[in-house]
Amino acid sequence: MLLPASAPLPQPTTASSFSLISLNVLLPNSHDGWWIYKYYPPSVAAAETTWSARSRLLEELLLIADADIICLQECCAASFESDFSFLQRAGYAASLLGKGRMRPATLWKTSRFALCDAAGAPAPPPPETPPHETTTDAEGPAAAGHDGGGAADAEECEWAALPATRGVAVTQGDRTLITTLHLLGEDGSPRGTPPLFVVNCHLTAGQEARRRLSQVHDALDRVRKQRAKALPKGHDPRAPCVVCGDFNSQGSTAVRELLLRGEVLPSFRESGDPTERDQAGTALTSKPKRQGVGAFTDVYERVEGGCGPTLVAPTLQPLMQREDGGVTDLLRAALAEAFLTLSADGETLSLEEQRRWLVAVNKEEGRGSEWRAAAAAREVRGSDSLDLHAFVGVYEAEVAQGKFWGVEHDLRVLRGEGVAQHGAPPFTATFDYLYCSDAIEVLGVRAPLDRGEPRAEALLKGESWLPNEWHASDHLPVGAALAFAPKRSGSE
């Protein structure tokens, strides 16, 4: 059953059913993420790019979905409680990965689930004063209130398990968060179903297929070991388990092979992702990698046409980056035009001209990778001025880091237009997934986007992209109605 993207997930239909939604929210810009405005189409008003506007959209989306379990990616630890206080008020508790700048967070309705260990015993209470880590802004110093939205000053709220309950109920891996939950009855007592393991992933982006495989393999191995340790000898260690989130890859990946087939052999090669280079020639493991949690199902594989895209953006990479990684002639020419709009003599940029350039694109002095790259270029040249070669070099570094959206924004500011072609087919990718082990049944899946609806059609025709004035992230959510499968003969 395919459920509309705009509709709530179904309420429980049986004593063992529940619902789950997963969304990469795009880093909240209440405390961090000052550069998020660069992701937006130029037609979107600046006020719509602030966290106050974005948080209203996320609140509407998540509360309408009304899922029993919510898995978020790209949360900011320093502002998580205030950023998502609307979920705490709606009756959710949360766990948050204890490390990293952009973290997964798993939330559950306290009326439906409670933390437990792998044997189903209630988890101990969280520490009274959970520690927060200081984050370093990779785009510049993190500072509260850059967007003026005031979300960082919102009323404080106390969550049931923040930032991460370490130990038996919540365990952490490399960009993975494993939360163990017990389904509750109407009276608040356990239903008698086995513990549910929710593996919330935000896997490494870029040419990192080996690491992505290790990230999911290690998470599943943690689940297997916890389950096996909790059960008497001879019992099947396979467990009810959901693996979901932003996988930053698509097609026939090693992660998918591990989940669906149970193992990845040294002969396996990935395929089907145009954003990954040299897939056919890249070995991902020197020895078989196996998982013992069970056979998984991609919840969308039964839907005609699959999940559809979960990320919609302007097509920029082929316009900016050659196959060998260098910048295209098109981008080089656009950068030369931008340089001439800044340079009084047409040959160099003075310190003041550089300041005007960098404040125009980043809105404040001293922040952004462009600012740091310009300073490094001046040091290399031994001069306060920068020539065209050095200016282009700043943006070559941005392209090499995959910041195509940032380069496009800066070109629009400096020369009035970027290189994106309005109405051209957009870049689409399916990076977000929801997999269930064979101990869970799929009752229905929620469409990431309602095809045929005018907003969706505008996206798919390249007339707009994400995020925008009606959606706060560059990713779309995936979700499903699920149920614990009946016990098999001979199982516990």
Describe this structure in words.
There is one protein chain. By secondary structure, the protein is of the alpha+beta class. It has 12 helices and 20 strands. Helix content is 26%, strand content 19%. Residues 129-157 have low confidence and may be disordered. α7 crosses α10 (388-400) and α9 (369-381) crosses α10. The chain is elongated and about 80 Å long. The chain has 2 domains: 2-314 and 428-484, Deoxyribonuclease I, Chain A (4-Layer Sandwich); 317-415, Recoverin, domain 1, CATH 1.10.238. Strands 1-19-20-2-3-5-4 form a 7-stranded mixed beta sheet.
Keywords for this entry:
492 residues, alpha+beta, Deoxyribonuclease I, Chain A, Recoverin, domain 1, 2 domains, seven-stranded mixed beta sheet, 12 helices, 19% strand
